[in-house]
Structures are given as structure tokens and as C-alpha cells.
Write a structure and sequence with these properties.
The chain is built from 21 helices and 8 strands. By secondary structure, the protein is α+β, with helices and mostly antiparallel strands.
């Protein structure tokens, strides 16, 4: 890295900034920069663009460009005449969406989307950012970087699912929901790294496993046991919150999103950034089903090799169940993952001990459910398999329902959130990381507000409440 003189650093970051390096000066700088579609300048009262903290501006555009701003008052950002129109249109087409569909998701008019895709046209930066987020692009580098860091493989997969003719087909709203989830996962991982937190799996022994040999469910049992050992979870210990385990221990974002009711959840992989999407609709309204969904998707992320995992893998509720031992003709990947999920939550040895100690099968099933937080269908299949007993005649009506303690521990978002306009996919841990990043001057109030779908003033009035909520 080139050594900068104190005078050069002061000119860019201001007299009040301290330190001997660009990064140190930016971290202590009170300066704000502002970008439009075509240029970046120092902030002023009359500026209408997107304000960036000094650290953001340095991170995104580099010292040399900021030095030009200090010298000339502004600097151009667009590197090609076709940008950002070409990137936005190419991305929309790759997703198989119309301008009207993108407009509805972005909360702007179809005409505004069409104008943004017109080469040589100027659009308000806020419009461009809303469109970019809806298409899982990096809105802050849009126009400056061709492609805006979009994952091309994700576009291919979303379009493939949209064009299917079977029950796995996505509607345009499903495509948009999963695109937003991809944006949240990548942004949450970026914020984690900025804050010095781990943004990938801990290096404790998780390695892709390509063994799907028949019977695949037995391998699922072994991988579940191996996972507990790697995470120092007792082999008979209940997992009281799989959400906390996934997000806090394993650093995997969990995103709640609205999809068609037939879908349970999905895994998304963008290079090293991986996340789990949980459908807020359908059977996941039952916390025990939701736990099974998260455990199932976790099994994919932890153990499936990249060739099996793919950029996007979506599971239906019909797939996320424990009927693995009767599924000899089904996909061995799903059989193994189902077995992993239920045995990770309810270890077979512990289940056998409960059933052996109870004469009444209904009581035994109820204890398995309430001890390990699994639903009736999963418990019946699992107990029937590991204990070799017939559970088919046990009526679900006689089995317990999830109590409030399970519901509270697995809530994907806080019940109360100060910003009503923030989508449910961006509450919870994502919002906390946004607030912390702002407090550390890593991002500006404008960026934080953009991330949480509110105004800068609304964010500033709520930042302390967001932090205290967690």
C-alpha cells in the first residue's frame, strides 16, 4: 500500500481525523461524502444524493478517487456510458422478470424502472438503489462496477425454477422474495466482516461429505452425531434454539421470507456467503415444524458438497419430513438430510431411552416432542424407525402442542420492532448489525436507512432501541 503524507490524508479526511494510514484517518473522520448516479462529492447541505461515511467511501472507491474529490470538488463514478442501465436490464432479464414486477418489489413505478434501464438516462440514486436491492445487486457499487457484484449463477437458478412446469415452479413473487433473501444474506455477511465478526463456518472440522450410499438415512444419523460432537453438544442434550445455534454459533444468516405455501425453506450459497431462508407461510407457523425446516437446511449447508448444494436449493414441505426410512426410491440427498435433521434434534439413543421407559406410546411420543422440540409427524416417523414400533395408529389429536418457551426461543424476529416499514426479512440480527455498523462509522445513516427501508431521521431516532432490543 502506498504511503500517504499527513497533508494528503488531512486534505481527504479533514483536520480532525487522526492516524498514519488511510484506514485510521477514515475511521476517525467526521467527513461525509455524497454520491449520485454519476459522481461522488463532498457532502453539503444542498446535496440530494446518498451520503456515505468516510470509511464507506474509502472502502468502495479507494483513496485516489477521494483525493480527486478533495482536489476538484467531485469525481465521476460511471466507468462505462452503458452503466448502470446495462447491469440493471441484464439482471432483470436473467431473473425472467418484467419491469412492472421489479417496480412492485422496489416500491416505485414501472416508468422509473424503464428509465433506469435506458442508457444515458439519469435517475435519482434512491430509485437505482431500490431496483438494485430487488435484483440482489450491490447498490453502493452500481454504475461504478459492471455487474454490481451480482451472482450470475443465482440468476440462472431463479430463472430455471421460474420456467419449470411442475410443482417446484416459482412465481414472480417467489423469485423476488428469494432475490431479496440473497441480498440480505450477502449484506449481513459483509456487515459481520466489517465488525470483525466471523462471517463463515468455524474451522472446526466441517468438510463436505459425498457419501449417499444406501441406506442414506444411516449416514444422516452419523453426520448428526458428528455435528453434535464438533459443536460440543451432548449426544442426548436438547437443542433449545436451533436459530441461535445457526446464527450465533455457526455464523449462518437465517432469513424469514414470504414464499408460496408449498415451500418450506431454502439454502443459498454465494461464494463463501451462505444462508438459510425460512418460509413464514404454511406449516412453518408451527415452531416445531420450523425447527425441522432449519435443521434440514442446516444439514445441506454443513455436509453437502458444492456439486450437490448448488447456488440455490429449495425444499417443499413434502420433502422436509422424517419419512426417510420408507423412501428407498427418493433422492438420497434428501433422505440423508431428513435423517440428519430429525436425529440432530432428537438423537436416536435418547429417543430409545424415553420409549423404553414409558409403557404408553402416546406418552412416549409426547415426551420426545416436548423434550426435543419436534412436531408430531416427525416424532411418529422417527420413533417408529429407531424403536421399531408401529406409531401409525397414534392420533395427532392426542399429542402435545408447542408451548410458549419453544415459540419464544425460536422467534426469527423480535415481536416488537421500532421501524414499521422494515421488512420482516431485515429485522432481527440483520438490523442489529446495521445499527452496530453505523455506531462504528462503518456505514452512514443513509446506508443504514436504505438497508432497513426507512428514512435517515427514522433510523437515527430508532438506532438505540434496535441495539437494546437485542
Amino acid at each position: 500500500m502506498m504511503t500517504r503524507t499527513p497533508k494528503e490524508l488531512e486534505r481527504v479526511f479533514g483536520k480532525s481525523s487522526k492516524g498514519a494510514t488511510e484506514e485510521e484517518r477514515a475511521a476517525t473522520s467526521e467527513k461525509l461524502f455524497v454520491r449520485s448516479q454519476v459522481q461522488i462529492a463532498e457532502d453539503s447541505e444542498s446535496a440530494k444524493g446518498h451520503r456515505l461515511s468516510a470509511q464507506e467511501a474509502l472502502r468502495l472507491f479507494g483513496f485516489d478517487l477521494l483525493a480527486r474529490v478533495a482536489e476538484e470538488g467531485s469525481a465521476p463514478l460511471v466507468t462505462k456510458p452503458s452503466e448502470p442501465a446495462a447491469t440493471l436490464m441484464a439482471r432483470r432479464v436473467a431473473f425472467g422478470l418484467t419491469p412492472a414486477q421489479v417496480a412492485r418489489k422496489a416500491g416505485i413505478s414501472e416508468m422509473q424502472v424503464q428509465r433506469a434501464e435506458l442508457t444515458g438516462s439519469l435517475s435519482p440514486i434512491r430509485d437505482l438503489e431500490r431496483i438494485a436491492q430487488a435484483l440482489a445487486l450491490n447498490e453502493l457499487t452500481l454504475g461504478y462496477e459492471s455487474g454490481a457484484r451480482g451472482n450470475e449463477a443465482l440468476g440462472v437458478r431463479l430463472r430455471e425454477f421460474a420456467e419449470l412446469k411442475d410443482t417446484r415452479r416459482f412465481s414472480p413473487s417467489d423469485v423476488m422474495a428469494l432475490a431479496e433473501a440473497a441480498w440480505v444474506i450477502r449484506t449481513q455477511s459483509d456487515l459481520s466482516r466489517l465488525l470483525g465478526k466471523r462471517a463463515s463456518l468455524p474451522d472446526i472440522g466441517f468438510k463436505p461429505d459425498n457419501n449417499y450410499a444406501f441406506p442414506a438415512y444411516e449416514r444422516g444419523y452419523k453426520l448428526a452425531e458428528a455435528t453434535r460432537m464438533l459443536l460440543n453438544i451432548g449426544l442426548n442434550e436438547p437443542i433449545l434454539s436451533i436459530k441461535s445455534l445457526v446464527e450465533e454459533t455457526l455464523s449462518i444468516p437465517v432469513i424469514q421470507q414470504a414464499l408460496a405455501p408449498k415451500f418450506a425453506g431454502a439454502t443459498m450459497a454465494d461464494r463463501s456467503d451462505r444462508g438459510i431462508v425460512v418460509n413464514e407461510a404454511g406449516q412453518n407457523s408451527n415452531v416445531w415444524v420450523r425447527r425441522m425446516t432449519m435443521a434440514h437446511e442446516l444439514g445441506h449447508l454443513l455436509w453437502d458438497p458444492d456439486t450437490r448444494l448448488d447456488t440455490l436449493k429449495v425444499d417443499k414441505y413434502d420433502d422436509v419430513e422424517a419419512r426417510y426410512f420408507k423412501a428407498s426410491t427418493r433422492d438420497p440427498v434428501e433422505i440423508r438430510t431428513n435423517a440428519f435433521a430429525i436425529s440432530f434434534l432428537a438423537p436416536p439413543g435418547a429417543v430409545r431411552s424415553i420409549v423404553a421407559g414409558r409403557r404408553d406410546l402416546v406418552d412416549a411420543l409426547g415426551e420426545v416432542m416436548t423434550t426435543f422440540g419436534v412436531g408430531a409427524t416427525a416424532a411418529k416417523f422417527h420413533v417408529g424407525n429407531v424403536c421399531n414400533v408401529d406409531t401409525s395408529r397414534v392420533s395427532v389429536a392426542y399429542l402435545p402442542k408447542a408451548e410458549d418457551d419453544w415459540i419464544g426461543r425460536e422467534n426469527l424476529t423480535v415481536d416488537w420492532f421500532p421501524l414499521k416499514s422494515t421488512p420482516i426479512s431485515r429485522r432481527g440480527r440483520f438490523a442489529l448489525l446495521v445499527a452496530r455498523s453505523f455506531q462504528n462509522r462503518l456505514i452512514s445513516a443513509d446506508t443504514a436507512a436504505m438497508h432497513l427501508h426507512c428514512t435517515a431521521n427514522e433510523f437515527l431516532a430508532s438506532v438505540d432501541a434496535i441495539v437494546s432490543a437485542f
